[in-house]
Amino acid sequence: MKILFIQTGGTIDKDYPQKLRSYAFVISDPAVRTVLKMIKPSFKFKIKTVIKKDSLDITEKDRTKIRELCQKSHYKKIIITHGTDTMIKTAEALKDITNKTIIFTGSMKPEKFYDSDARFNIGCAIGAANIIKKGIFIAMNGRIYNWDNCKKTKACQFVNKISSC
What's the whole-model pTM score? Predict the structure, then answer.
């Protein structure tokens, strides 16, 4: 198995450098790089940074750039780390890519935080990439959702649109 990891930014990659002396954040190195170093994967992978933005700042031009990279890539399995606020919108921009497995994931707290859900969500996405054949999915909160059948709730959880169970 070979996986292309695409970094777009979002909370998963945020860092709060001390030298800024404020509550300001920066989008840091890809969180997935840190996670992969820890797990020492038995598959080949590549990490590519496309943009480093909070997902609320992602533009249609950015989404086109992400879509073009996914379409042109020879990788058939792609995991995109993305901010949770607009990951479904970006997934929708990729809906016409039907010959690959594309899984979006992110986190509610930066990977650098001790109690972050980032490592779990990345692991969930990798596990899903092992078994899902083709399509676009969201891997969050220990579940895999079809991109067009989930929503983010006010409690910052992803659930099926039809049922929350």
Answer: 0.91
